[in-house]
Design a protein that fits this description.
CATH topology: Four Helix Bundle (Hemerythrin (Met), subunit A)
Number of helices: 6
Radius of gyration: 16 Å
Order of helices and strands: HHHHHEEH
Structural class: mainly alpha
Largest sheet: 2 strands, antiparallel
CATH architecture: Up-down Bundle
CATH superfamily: dinb family like domain
CATH class: Mainly Alpha
Length: 164
Amino acid sequence: METTETLNETQLITKDQLLNQWLGQRKVTRRVLDAFPEKELFEFTIGGMRTYAQLTKEMLAMDGATAKGVATGEWSTLDEEKSELTTKADLLASWDESTEKIQKYWKQISIKNFQEKVVAFGQYEGTGYSILFYVMDNEIHHRGQGYVYLRALGITPPNFWEQY
């Protein structure tokens, strides 16, 4: 994605560069999700951790809703159950829809929105940018759990550095 934004002395990256970083991370996470066999996606755990399907549902509850919240100030409650997502195909389709939602709301986010104080989902206090980083970090953390699961299942996970 080409950017026409210009940097000033206080900026490290542009808004579009931040979005591209997030979308790159999401592409890797999607490939991790896609690497799981259907049964293990919903049943396999190690050491009491949640299944990768459950972790994915948590990520899906937060990602598009965060972009919307930062853009509009409207924060929904978290629905991490997402009981309607019962197959790998459902999760992948929901992931793609959520990515589209992020891109849609990203266009509405102003630089001011990043600095505003928010209470996301009625529980996370911070600024627009700190909540976005929390959601990105959460995704990377859960993707790491997915890597452990895949390796335990004898499956080589996708290269994390192939983000684009």
